[in-house]
Amino acid sequence: MELIRVQDSDYRKTYELYMTFPENENGYMNNVYGYNYEQFLEWIEKKRNWSLGKELPEGFVPDTTYVLVDEDVYVGVFNLRHCLNDFLREGPGHIGYCISEKYRGRGYATKGLKLTLEKAGQRSIHEVYMSVNKDNPASLRVQMKNGAYIHHENETEFFTRINLIEVEEGGEQ
């Protein structure tokens, strides 16, 4: 199992994967929902630039989007934001992810998050911020299996943290 940057992926398979995601599911926003293939290819070029911190829309931070691939099968996506602004710090955090419905319940989210946390560590991110809708206990379990703890909450979301230094030194990962 591996993470492949969207700009290095098989674009057709990545497009087909994204088209299995609803526009908004459990807090994961599919920003290419409804795109045709040509629009999707344009988005990949934007993602290539955004991962380098170029041509970022107002309020955006550099990020890298990965496809989780298991033996040439594209099962999910993981987005890693390289840094946080105030909105992300009090909201979505560093990492967002989604597994295609037909591959859920097989441990892909747990493994994909573990791999994404490794990428975060390579970027010298020492504490990963994330959030999860309270009505999504499966995703909360995924985060907890990867060393997360609930930092705080509001009416609809838990805001979790993963201290990557502790995880590297023998935490739950």
From TrEMBL:
PROSITE patterns: GNAT (PS51186). The keyword Transferase applies. One of its GO terms (molecular function) is acyltransferase activity, transferring groups other than amino-acyl groups. SUPFAM superfamilies: Acyl-CoA N-acyltransferases (Nat). InterPro entries: Acyl_CoA_acyltransferase, GNAT_dom. Gene3D superfamilies: 3.40.630.30. Residues 19-165 form the N-acetyltransferase domain. It comes from the Bacteria. Keywords: Transferase. This is GNAT family N-acetyltransferase. It comes from Roseburia inulinivorans.
